[in-house]
Structure prediction request, 901 residues.
Amino acid sequence: MNGNALFPAMVSWRAPRTIAVVVTLALLALLPVIAANFGSDYYVGFGTRVLIYALAAIGLNFILGFGGMVSLGHAMYVMLGAYAVAIPATHGIASGWTHLVIAIAATTTLSLAVGAVALRTSGIAFIMITLAFAQMLYFGAVGLKDYGGDDGLTIAERSVATLYDLSNPATLYYVTLVTVLLALYLSWRAVLSPFGLVLRATKANARRATALGHPVFRYQLTAYVISAVVCAVAGVLLANLTKFASPSYGAWTLSGELIVIVILGGLGTIFGPVIGAIILLALEELLPSLVEMALPDYKANWMLLLGLFIFLVALLLKRGVFGSLPARSRSAPVRGEPVEP
Amino acid sequence: MTAQLALSQLLNGLQLGVLLFLLAAGLTLVFGIMSFVNLAHGSLYMLGAYFGAAIFARTDSFLLGLGAAVAGAGLVGLLLDRFALTKLYERDHLDQVLATFGLILFFNELIRIIWGPSSVFMQVPDALSSTVEIAGFSYPSYRLAIIVAGVAVALGLYLLIQKTRVGMLIRAGATNANMVAALGVNIKWLNTLVFALGAALAGLAGVMAGPIVSVQPGMGEPVLILTLVVIIIGGLGSIRGAFYAALIVGVVDTLGRAFMPTIMRTLFERSTADAAGPALASMLIYLFMAVVLALKPQGLFPSGAGATR
Amino acid sequence: MSALLTQSLVKRFGGVLATDHVSLSVEPGEIHAIIGPNGAGKSTLIGQLAGEIASDDGKVLLFDEDVTAVPTHQRAQRGLARTYQVTQLAKEFTALDNVLLAVNARERHNFRFWRNAHDNATAMAKAASALATVGLGAMHHATVGTMAHGEQRQLEIAMALATEPKLLLLDEPLAGMSQGESGAIVALLQSLRGRYPMLLVEHDMEAVFALADRVSVLVYGRIIATDTPDGVRNNPEVRSAYLGESLGDDL
Prediction:
């Protein structure tokens, strides 16, 4: 009943959701090949960016979709991850593993501190506090005059990894894709695990979970740290992609975009963030061109439509694009435990 | 670091605090009574600045500009509430965050379309363009006027909230919105009133800030976040908390930025001080917030709002 | 040693004394019911006993241990289980997952991230057993949102039982139930009699007199009488407190 050694739960292979997952993953796997056919590196870079955003959104979704914690400041961990690459790089430390270790260590420490304070509140207060802390870190980065400050910090070379060469766009793309796959798999397992059960209960009814004897704070803090680390890894990859680290990576607008991605894809689904990232970033690519075609004078103002789009998504899209797909095929029983991510 | 410099920075801090209060008062009511996360509050501040600047430039009358800002922002708030936001009041905070985030992008871009992407210059009104002698040094009259005006508005708000029937309803709504609705009060109109009032106050803050800050698209967000810090420190739903917290935040932030580099230099060697000083100065107010939260998660003057939610 | 003992418990809200120096006990094996007119302060008292409401004065002792300052989740760890008057369930979860959550609360920790929570055979068996005890054996996979009110109330009790408690605090378990549904719950509580000491807050007088070994009457936050059911029924002060209320007829 509960899957096998590989899958933590039964997979309904004919369900629309499964099909969507398989098709999307297949396309993502083939992207560099397809792009090479058209002789363009641009879409490989774009694809890497989409996957990086997806990764950060997977991290955020862990606490947002499954834990009910609305963090409006998660971009700060992305920024932290990026600087974990950039700052050591300025000092000549180029090893990818070192960058990763620094990113994880710094993020764990910071998120423990921030989470410990912020999680003593809930609701609106929690949202605002996470935003405030992100702003604090943003100003901290701006104030780092020795490391670029407001202008950001350029990285000469991508992280050096012993097994592969990240300066090759396709390699970086596949490294990112594998990371995303790993994150998807691990979050799937985690959500269905005993930890995940308590975490989801804190979203469904924290009061009851506490009354049953669960120390809810501990679970929330753990989940918060985990989600922060995932965002930091995304930041490490982002720094490698752009060869740049900037306070803007921690701007509240990025935190907002991550929330849009999570909701667009489908809150509380495992694969939703990937779909959401694809849709949002594609939209941000296409809108300027569309506006240019219709109203050339207003080409620079395409974000007006984006803002409107986001507003309407919030108002109308209850379950997200991926979340609206049925989780089981039509022939499966109606009353059954949710098995599909 | 002379006493006069300190005093002048203190006054600057009070001036910032007063502007923050105008923003915080409206926002904390919206948070407390309607349990509505409005990230677009900064946009209302921005609209006030632009409306004020535009009318001031057209008519040469700062007072008309003031009126336009307050009325304009209030009107936009009213329209938003009536036509865009009513459905969102029932929804969970996440949806509200997302929707108002979209509104921020929308309004920033709208401003860019109408007034262009570069900042708009708004001059200090002639009547207040001189300086005033205080304790042996000169302080800009305009900034002093802001402090005076802000305190006057605070007083007016106090009278409104404490001494009028409408104010009583607002206070009741802040502690138990369901009860107020159950008592037959038209909660929809109360919500609209609160929202529009908050918007008008934000607009007032915007137009008053106009001559001394950069009037440009996106000017609302940094101020919004500082306002959120004020509300967190003061306590959600508490106007009294917002007042004290705003002044504290304004003073701490201003004095911190002014004197942190100097303090750093006395404590550390110059290179470290110069590297870390400015960063620490801008982070100071958030660290302060963290300390307050660690000790009193409900804020310094919790209103009891949410106790029955 | 009493299972539960309160010493002069006090709670003030502003100027109102919601809990007025309440001293009561629940002895091992007994069912102690609390009745009282609406607004008597029963919910506040339960909240203080469970730890969700901080007391202003007085003590709460659980099996002779002072838990007055102990937070809710730790009181649960020490054996205090409570059901809610207004159902507090994880609405998106299935009945099984709700009970499994309760079972898992007894584990030292749930920081296991790899295996599916449903793969723990022991835990699943305990959950199934708790569901069977309350009569929900057929509803494992029903989502709470789709369950009838009576079934949800049964689930409330199943969750409390699944934590292997040493004491049950039942806050109006029959709230909102039809005659037939009530009968089932009363029968269930009868079957549990003796196994768990229970503090039962109820409005339903038939149930109270069928189940309770002792009854305490709470009026305006103060206990005005503690006696056997018959003793309370004949107590003049109690009768006058209920005068004018339809419950007076039931007495």
Remarks:
- Chain A touches chain B through 47 residues (CB under 8 Å).
